[in-house]
Amino acid sequence: MTRLADYFVLVGYDVDKRGSSDGQGRILQRFPEKDWEDNPFPQGIELFCQPSGWQLFTERQPPTFFVAVLTDINSERHYCACFTFWEAVEDSQPQKSRSGEDDEDSGIIQPAQMFAPKSLVLVSQLDHTEVFRNCLGLIYTVHVEGLKVPLETLIGNLLTCFIPIAGGSQPGLDEKEESLRTITLGAGDRQVIQTPINDSLPVSGCSVALLFRQLGIINVLYLFCAALTEHKILLLSSSYQRLTDACRALLSIMFPLKYCFTYIPILPGKLLEVLCTPTPFIIGVSSFFRSETQELLDVIIADLDGGTVTIPECIHISLLPEPLLHQTQTVLSMILDPELEVADHAFPPSTIQPSSLKIQDKEIRAVFLWLFAQLFQGHRWCLHIIRVHPEPVIRFHKAAFLGQRVLTEDDFLMKVLDGMAFAGFVSERGPSYRAIDLFDELIATEVDRMRLEEGNPHKVMKHIKELAEQLFKNENPYPAVPMHKVQRPTEGSHLRLHQTTFPHLDEVTVQLFIDHAAAKQKNEIPAVKSEKKCMVPSGPPPDAIIDSNVLANSARRLEVVRNCITYIFENKTVEAKKLLPAVLRALKGRAARQCLTQELNLHVQQNRAVLDDQQFDYIIRMLNCTLQDCSHMDEHGIAAALLPLVTAFCRKLGAGVTQFAYSCVQDHSVWTNMQFWEAMFYSDVQNHIRALYLEGNENEEHSQEYKSALEIASEQRRQWPMLSKDKQQELIQKEESTVFSQAIHYANRMSYLLLPLDTSKNRLLRSSGLGDFESVSNSYVTNSIAGSMAESYDTESGFEDAEGSDVANSVVRFINRFVDKVCTESGVTNEHLKALHLMIPDIVQMHIETLDAVHRESKRLPAIQKPKLLLPALLVGEELVMEGLRVYLISDGRDEATGGIMGGPPLLPAEGAIFLTTYRLIFRGTPTDPLVGEQVVIRSFPIASLTKEKKISVSVQMDQFIQEGLQLRSCTFQLMKIAFDEEVASDLAEVFKKHLHKLRYPQHVNGTFAFTVGQSFKLVDEHKHKEKNQSLRTLSKNLVKNAKKTMSRQHVTRKKYTPPTWENRGSLQSQVDEDDISVSEEVDQRSLTLSSTIKSSDRQTMSNVVERACCKDYQRLGLGTLSNSLTRSKHEPFRISTVNRMYAVCRSYPGLLIVPQSIPDSTIQRISRCYRQNRFPVVCWRNSRTKAVLLRSAGLHGKGVVGFFKSPNAPTAGPSQADSTSLEQEKYLQAIINSMPSYSDASGRNTLSGFTSAHMSSSDSSDKQRQPKIGALMKQVMGSKEELPASVLGHRARVTSLSQRRTSVKARNLPRGKWGSIRGGGLMSSYSPDIATRLAGKDTSSPQTNGGPSEAHFVQQQRAYLYIIGDKSQLKGTKQDPLQQWEVVPIEVFDVRHVKTSFKKLMKACIPSCTSTDPNMPYYRCLEESEWLCLIHKVLQVSVLVVGLLDSGSSVMVSLEDGWDISTQVVSLVQLLSDPYYRTMDGFRLLVEKEWLSFGHRFSHRGAQTLASQSSGFTPVFLQFLDCVHQIHLQFPMEFEFSQYYLKFLAYHYVSNRFRTFLLDSDYERIELGVMYEEKGERKNQQVYKSVWDYIDRLNKKTPIFFNYMFAPEDGEVLKPYSFISNLKVWDFYTNETLSEGPSYDWELVYGRQEQMDESDRQDTSAPKSQRKIIWPCYDNRSKVEPDAITKLFQEIQSLEMELGQVSEKWKDMWDKIKATQRTESKLESRHSLSSSLLMSSNLSHHRRSQGMYVKESRVGSSLNLSMDSESSVTATPSSGMGRGQQSTSTLYSQFQTSESEHRSFEGILYKKGALLKPWKPRWFVLDKTKHQLRYYDARQDKDCKGVIDLAEVESVIQGTPTMGAPKNIDEKAFFDLKTTKRFYNFCAQDSQNAQLWMDSIQSCLSDA
Predict the structure, then answer these.
(1) Is there a contact between 252 and 365 (Cβ–Cβ < 8 Å)?
(2) How far apart are CA 1757 and CA 1407, in angstroms?
(3) Helix intervals (H) in 770-829
(4) DSSP 3-state of 509
(5) Does the reported pTM lie above 0.85?
């Protein structure tokens, strides 16, 4: 029995503190005034009476009632029922004045202004909401209605009312009396209180059903899961009672788990800071405070009034596992909305109604009870009972439960089992002898029923209804009993005007009631409720729950495992070896792992199994594989089963030395997992305790054999009270010593598995950090294995130089902590614990001594054979820096090599070695997968291309456990993830990294491979390096020293002449040695045009400079002449200036430069100061047709900008320095404009008219349609905000039409391209639209059909003669002078930093380090985010604009950044697009040498080639240029002499440092180092090439690998490629990989080896060879395995020549011969005048034959004619600039007619008799075996076939006879007839022999068919 109410409290408004900002309440009276001993008075009740704060109201409010819940320090809940009504309070001042008058009726309050709340509060430990409501309502009614019952009596009765907590266990009437209690407070009232039958089940009333109505099914399920997984939950409502009900409901559905965190159904406003607590909670808050809750970021907010649940983004709620979630939702829906199921029925039943709210409430609770029974089924089988007496100690084995339920991956269940609620559940419900409730019965008896009904909602529903009935009965044992008779106040009583205040109660009277009741209670015998205790049934074990499909593993696999183990123990080694790989693969499945443990157990006799070495090795490998694949939740099954085995299997090493298996299986994290050891320990203790009690009952052992430990414990607990004290003590001691002995056993076991064989190093201990490991009770896994293994041991304290003793100490510490924990939990005595602590160090030390002997002996064993290290092939001069380190190559984010999406074998991971050479980093090895073990995997890259090195820790799925690794990323798009093998000591790995770093970033460029090649690596020391080329080096140094002195002088001291190497000679024309360059020197300031030559003494020095390739190019372009004459024709507009020959003006420019003839050198020196890095404008190319020139320079210095662009007419105060410089710049630009013939030809300012119109009329209209208009392009480049016809670029169709105006208008309205502009969003310059419009002006006018200029042309303004492409940011705020003849085009360029970051992202996209887990970042998204293609687009766009301007006759000056990055890209591309010469191999070389090398692109700096430039990082500006060339090559495949491979080759070697070509930043630095002009005879080793061009030339002579067979250029072709991103392709250089041979750019390594292999292959030709080829993605070099047709023919010819013993002809000579033959043939045969551009035949062997026959008889055997005009080429290439007449369509088709030689099996002239009455006529007949036809033509050259006889229709070929009109003088035997199914043909050959030939040929055709 317990009190119904503990305290009654009267709380009122505190009038004294009325002035303060917030009103306060105070306790007016409380009863009893003394605290109960068992239940102290809760503090802070006044806060909870008015949760929103104490306030005065102007109107009287109706009374309110709610129940708040307070939790005290002992976690006991107090239910505070608050009944609040309002009473008037008067203003204090008027009160005083009235007090005298109103004395007589002071009891009555006059109507007043304000009303204050007053609360009647009942505090109880019971939750009877309705009873409390009735009691407090009665007290209020008595007061307000003025009933004649003293309030003290009511309160006294209320406080002395005793009721039972729960229904008793007595049968019959007593039970009814116990369950029903009638109470009265003495005011004629009566209430019946029903107490629940079982108080462990919560009482919910209707609260659960209401909660579902308010929030809906999904929302409540979210709240339910959030509460179970310990999230913070906040409920909002404007009703306090609803908050309490909702919280009660939430707790009810969590049964049988109990919520043990903060629980406050109604939180007062003053305590809102509680919401910031870090612990989980369920709290209710009034909606009044909604705004204060908005900032809570980690709280789930449920709005009961709005029906919403808000989950913050940062919170992830784990939901119930499927299919439980779906089943729960379905059943809940059937309860809450039964009509839903029949809503679609044609005749829905009329009776379906949801249950009443009370019943519905129980049904919903029944669903959750059913749900928990499903979740926890079998959990009692995973309880470990460690102690039975004196009190049960129970632990839950979580890993076993999850493993057996196959729910290890389920997030929700993991969190629930880890939660505090479940820990409480285990401690409360774990004991096996106790009272049981509905949940226990459900788990014990109904699990099988649930499994059967799982898929049937109606059966489930039936079960739910049964459970609901039980729940309802528990809550309402006697629903029929009449309940209440309680008076209520009359309606509206609270609104009465005159109301008395609640009186002051008499404390004495109330206290008397209480004392009287207490005395009576003392005299009564206390009613002891006897609990029904019994053994708790366990229900079916969890194993049975597993669906058979989950563990379905083919019986064949298990058979393989069993067979292999049998073979091992029968010593059938060969058989076992065959099966082992399959077994290791099978062991990834759990069933196979379990099978292995069972099988091995069979082979252990008396706890020992001695094996020989080979058997031991196999068993160890299998054990390691099994443990390797264990997840951290799977230890319960596999590792636990293997633990006894690893101490059983052993081998004899020597006299008295035995090695056990445990010393070889230590490298698994499971052994360092404290929870694993705890679970194992508890499991063993349970078994021993069970055995202990079974021993005591030996006589009954046979019957008790199958009893579980819990059942035995239950029996023992039942008997316990009946045992004597001594017997009890004896049992306690026995149990304690059992636990103690197990602790000793486990200390030994743990030392076995934690102490390494070699105690000097223990990787496992270090990596898992045993020294700092803390465990948490109840077997919760606290450290994830992945996490503990991921940290490198370097971060652990005290392990860096760990000694053996350190290892021992850490093992001792670990075991000590384990022992402390388990012994404390198991109740081991302190004496025993101390003894254990003393014992453990001895155990460990003893074991270490044993291991030392084993370690010593095991070293003598021959090592297990690992794959032999394969040595890599090296280049000549390349040397190994370190011996190979054994490593594993791990797969990265590209899944081709792992046999991913594309299929193919898993080539990675591979086992091999990493080699560090002076040039490369090479991995060479074989795949670990035995099925592809024969393949060799090679991955390598040059050390100089390494961009990032990162330490990683790797867990490789192999026999060994590896943790230390490196990730190396290269800018040649290679990624190496390597993991060092265990045999590689960590210091070796460090040495490797140091060497790598030293080689990657040498102190000076001298240290790079290109310079050190051929020298021994050990001798390379940058500072003491003996210079090979001493004289040359001195010459360079002197040259540089004198540079500063010669700023004013113009002559050079005599130097030793050094002839240049071939590398530096131009390849365009043969060089005449006597040639001197005529350079104009500034002799006198006045004679500006006077030319003279430098002194003869300096000529030799200068000849080196002259021979630089760029000078040849200037000569070719007619920009400077090379001649012996001393005079120069003065009318030449440009001269070669030597002003920079000493590199004094600009260090990054070449020695000789092209400048306008009229500008003296002194001016140049002054002008150069205005430009960044002194890079003043120089001419680099001239258009041979329009004579427009292309200039390059750096951007202007900031100070020079304004002066440069100021109007020359602006008045100035006086001549200043800035002005003069500005004027000189202007003169310079004017001199360039004057050089243009269009300017000099024109009169006045009207300059371009004649030229432009002529040019326009000559251009092809269809070309114009397809090309972007220059104006439009200009607008795009400058970023105009107007809509532009961007998609004109995409208008690809070639329409021969003159209605151009209409077309362009249509195109103009098309939508704009996505990336169609370089604009970065900057503001427009004030004049740029004007330029764009004027530029657009020319193109919008359509040419007239008669070739004259269009009318529109004359009204438009002229173009400028010179456009300056400048950086928008540099040119802000400048005004354009309308009179100047140049215009500035401001564009936004990207920074080199942008290129650097973009390239990093591109590398990550193309070679990701690991497979992406983010589904939002697929490959193409990563590619887009890198913006690499955007940058390519921008460069191409600007280049196309410049090409267009130059082509239209305007000169262009590119003046961007420092003039060596983007400027170089643009200038090079412009020349490539405009001049076909640069598209040949020689020309491209010259272009790179001129624009990139001579003009000082900073290769060393941008490539971070030395230590100094390391910090600047790798910026691939040149790679970007090559990518642009690649894009153009794709669009114009017939315009380039070189192939795509040539570009990839350069892209690879410009960063590889194999050649010296791309080292250093300028010619000045190259001269300084003495590498610019190396002597020819210096190259001692013919194989070592210093120049990449030399190497390419040599290779090109040998093989056509760099040659483009499609090369068929047009004369004067100007290319204008499309630059939109949709037109660009990702270069396969970034993505392709060949694992069979590594990168194919070091040709000797890949193809040189191939040749040797081929030779070895050829010797054995007898064996039949398979024609089948398998090409693996990312492994094979496809171009080599399956070469293109022409390459294959070249190879065949070469092999045939070798067979015949002929001298092999060079491929180029052969190609040129065939080309020449074709050209002559096409001239002979072709009637139409076709262009001479040729596409070669693929059938070259036929050509060799036809050339041989040609001499004998020109009529037989015709050569292939595929000549075609590239205008009408089938490849839809973007257009070319020059117009050309179109051919008729018939010509297009006729060139593909069947005169092709390979279809002509036999041909010649035959006379054919015509049809009826027609004469005989000679025709040229062709027998075509391929098409199975006999065709005839009028003549041999004829392309149009006159007729075809299908040989399929021929029935016979017979000898014929001459008929009428047959040719005369011909032998009779020359006639033959052909009979077909349709008609009869008569033929006549030249003679009988020829006729026979024809008949035989036709007959053979027929028989072949």
Answers:
(1) yes
(2) 53
(3) 785-790, 804-826
(4) helix
(5) no
